[in-house]
C-alpha cells in the first residue's frame, strides 16, 4: 500500500474513536471544517492550497489486507470492527475554497460532510496535507509580492522535511507565482517548469574552472547557466565572457550566471558590469544562498542588478513561521449544530460559508462568516469539489489555480501586501451565527 494513501497514516486515537462509533452505531452525517484560528506574527493573509491533493487522497484512501492483518495482530480492536474497517471508503461531500484563494482567521477553508466515522478518520491526514501547503503557499506569495517581475525558483528540496514535503512545497510555490522548481519529481508529477544549474562540486572536480564551464556548456547547450562563485567570482565572470566568444560559432549561448555566496548585491553589480562590457547584455544574473522574501526585498531596494532568485531552505521549511494554528473541528452531527467551548479554542457551530465583499477599486474589503443557508451579500468562497466521494469538474487543475492565485494577490488591499504586520483584515461573524452560538451556550448551562 502506498504510504501516502494508507489510512494507517493517522493518529491512534482516530482508530480508537472509530471503534467506539462502530459499537454505538454512530454513523449519522457529520460536518467538520478546517480553519486557522489566528495569524502568526509576520503574516497578514494566508493562501488556500492542497485541495486537489486532498481530493486525490480521499479518492484512493483505504486499508490494505496486510494493514488489517497488522491491526488484528495488535489485539487492540474487535474482529467485527476490523471486518467493517476493511471495506472503508470515503463517500462524503467536500466543499472548499479554490486553491489560490486568499483567506483569513476563523474562515473555513474546507468543509467535510460525511458519515461520522469517515469524516473523523481523515482528520490527521487532511491537516497534514493542507497545513504544509497553505504554509508554503502563503510564504511563497510574499516573495512574489516583493519581486513580481523577477524569476523565482524553488531550491528547497534538500532541506525540506522529507520527500513528500519537498515535492508539495514545489507545488505550493508554483501555485502562488514562482517560475518553477529544481525538484525533478515535482516537474514530472505536476508539470512545473524545471530550473537547474550546477553545484560547486562540479567545478571542483575539474582541474580548471574554464574547462568545467566549457564542458557543461557543451553537455547542456540549451541550458547554460554557470555557477561562478566557487573561487573568484569576478575572475570567473571574465572567463564566462571569453567562453561566450568561443562557443558562439557552435550556436551555444550562455543564458546566465549564478552567484551563491558573498555580498550578493555588490557582486551582482560587478559581474553585471563585466558581462555588459564583454557584450553579454542578455546574460542574466541569478542569485541564491540563504534567501527569503526579506533578503530579496533588501537586495532589490539596493538596486542590485539581479534577474532571478533561487529560494530554498527558508521557503520549504517556512523558517520564520514554521506552523499555523489550524484546526479541524466537528460543527454538526445528526442534524444538530455542535460547538466546542474550550477556553481559547471555542468554535463557531454549524456548517458555514464565507462571503467576500470588494471595494470600488475591486480590492478585497471584508468577509462575513455565517451559516451556509444564510443570504449574505458578496461572493461565496466555498464551492463543491466532491460529491458522494467523487471529484467534480470544479477542480480545475494546478495551472488554472495558479492563474486564480495571481488574480487573488492583485486584489489584496495594499497594507496586507507588506512584509510587516498590518491592521487585521475585517472578518465579521454574522448575527445569525452569533445567535446560534449563544443559544447552544445557554442550553449547555
UniProtKB/TrEMBL annotation:
User: Which CDD domains does the UniProt entry name for this protein?
Assistant: NAPRTase_A (cd01570)
Report the EC code(s) recorded for this entry. Answer: 6.3.4.21
Recorded GO molecular functions are: nicotinamide phosphoribosyltransferase activity; nicotinate phosphoribosyltransferase activity
Residues making up the signal peptide according to the UniProt record? none
Record key words, sorted: Glycosyltransferase, Ligase, Phosphoprotein, Pyridine nucleotide biosynthesis, Transferase
InterPro entries in the cross-refs:
Aldolase_TIM (IPR013785), N/Namide_PRibTrfase (IPR041525), NAPRTase_C (IPR041619), NAPRTase_N (IPR040727), Nic_PRibTrfase-Fam (IPR007229), Nic_PRibTrfase_pncB (IPR006405), Nicotinate_pribotase-like_C (IPR036068)
Pathway field: Cofactor biosynthesis; NAD(+) biosynthesis; nicotinate D-ribonucleotide from nicotinate: step 1/1
The entry's cellular-component GO terms read: cytosol
Which post-translational modifications are recorded for this protein? Answer: Transiently phosphorylated on a His residue during the reaction cycle. Phosphorylation strongly increases the affinity for substrates and increases the rate of nicotinate D-ribonucleotide production. Dephosphorylation regenerates the low-affinity form of the enzyme, leading to product release.
Which terms under GO biological process does the entry name? NAD+ biosynthetic process via the salvage pathway
Residue span, Nicotinate phosphoribosyltransferase C-terminal domain:
378-436
Q: What class of enzyme is it?
A: ligase
**Every Nicotinate/nicotinamide phosphoribosyltransferase domain range:** 152-332
Q: Which reaction does it catalyse?
A: 5-phospho-alpha-D-ribose 1-diphosphate + nicotinate + ATP + H2O = nicotinate beta-D-ribonucleotide + ADP + phosphate + diphosphate
Nicotinate phosphoribosyltransferase N-terminal domain sequence ranges: 8-130
Q: Which NCBIfam families match?
A: NAPRTase_put, PRK09243.1-3, PRK12484.1
Family to which the UniProt record says this protein belongs: Belongs to the NAPRTase family.
Its function, per the record, reads: Catalyzes the first step in the biosynthesis of NAD from nicotinic acid, the ATP-dependent synthesis of beta-nicotinate D-ribonucleotide from nicotinate and 5-phospho-D-ribose 1-phosphate.
| UniProt protein name | Nicotinate phosphoribosyltransferase
- Source organism: Tepidiphilus thermophilus
Amino acid at each position: 500500500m502506498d504510504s501516502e494513501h494508507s489510512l494507517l497514516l493517522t493518529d491512534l486515537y482516530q482508530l480508537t474513536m472509530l471503534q467506539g462509533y462502530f459499537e454505538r452505531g454512530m454513523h449519522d452525517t457529520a460536518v467538520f471544517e478546517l480553519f486557522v484560528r489566528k495569524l502568526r506574527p509576520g503574516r497578514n493573509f494566508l493562501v488556500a492550497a492542497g485541495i486537489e491533493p486532498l481530493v486525490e487522497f480521499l479518492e484512493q484512501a483505504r486499508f490494505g489486507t496486510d494493514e488489517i492483518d497488522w491491526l488484528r495482530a495488535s489485539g487492540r480492536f474487535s474482529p467485527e470492527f476490523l471486518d467493517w474497517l476493511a471495506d472503508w471508503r470515503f463517500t462524503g461531500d467536500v466543499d472548499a475554497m479554490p486553491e489560490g484563494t486568499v483567506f483569513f482567521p476563523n474562515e473555513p477553508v474546507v468543509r467535510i460532510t460525511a458519515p461520522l466515522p469517515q469524516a473523523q478518520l481523515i482528520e490527521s491526514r487532511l491537516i497534514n496535507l493542507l497545513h504544509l501547503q497553505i504554509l508554503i503557499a502563503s510564504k511563497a506569495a510574499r516573495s512574489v509580492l516583493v519581486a513580481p517581475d523577477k524569476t523565482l525558483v524553488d531550491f528547497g528540496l534538500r532541506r525540506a522535511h522529507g520527500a513528500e514535503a519537498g515535492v508539495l512545497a514545489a507545488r505550493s510555490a508554483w501555485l502562488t507565482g514562482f517560475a518553477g522548481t529544481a525538484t525533478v519529481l515535482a516537474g514530472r508529477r505536476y508539470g512545473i517548469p524545471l530550473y537547474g544549474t550546477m553545484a560547486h562540486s562540479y567545478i571542483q572536480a575539474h582541474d580548471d574552472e574554464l574547462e568545467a564551464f566549457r564542458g557543461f556548456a557543451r553537455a547542456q547547450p540549451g541550458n547554460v547557466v554557470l555557477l561562478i562563485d566557487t573561487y573568484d567570482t569576478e575572475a570567473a565572470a571574465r572567463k564566462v565572457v571569453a567562453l561566450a566568444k568561443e562557443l558562439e560559432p557552435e550556436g551555444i549561448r550562455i543564458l546566465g550566471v549564478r552567484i551563491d555566496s558573498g555580498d550578493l548585491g555588490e557582486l551582482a553589480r560587478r559581474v553585471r558590469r563585466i558581462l555588459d562590457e564583454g557584450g553579454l547584455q542578455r546574460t542574466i544574473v541569478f542569485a541564491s544562498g540563504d534567501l527569503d522574501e526579506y533578503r530579496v526585498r533588501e537586495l532589490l531596494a539596493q538596486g542590485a542588478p539581479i534577474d532571478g532568485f533561487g529560494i530554498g531552505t527558508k521557503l520549504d521549511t517556512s523558517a520564520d513561521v514554521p506552523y499555523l494554528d489550524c484546526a479541524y473541528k466537528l460543527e454538526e452531527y445528526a442534524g444538530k449544530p455542535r460547538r466546542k467551548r474550550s477556553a481559547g479554542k471555542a468554535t463557531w457551530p454549524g456548517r458555514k460559508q464565507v462571503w467576500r465583499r470588494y471595494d470600488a477599486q475591486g480590492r478585497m474589503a471584508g468577509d462575513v462568516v455565517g451559516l451556509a443557508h444564510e443570504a449574505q451579500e458578496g461572493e461565496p468562497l466555498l464551492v463543491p469539489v466532491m460529491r458522494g466521494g467523487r471529484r467534480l469538474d470544479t477542480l480545475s487543475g494546478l495551472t488554472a489555480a495558479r492563474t486564480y492565485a495571481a488574480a487573488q494577490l492583485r486584489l489584496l488591499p495594499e497594507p496586507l501586501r507588506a512584509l510587516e504586520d498590518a491592521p487585521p483584515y475585517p472578518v465579521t461573524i454574522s448575527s445569525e451565527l452569533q445567535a446560534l452560538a449563544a443559544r447552544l451556550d445557554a442550553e449547555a448551562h
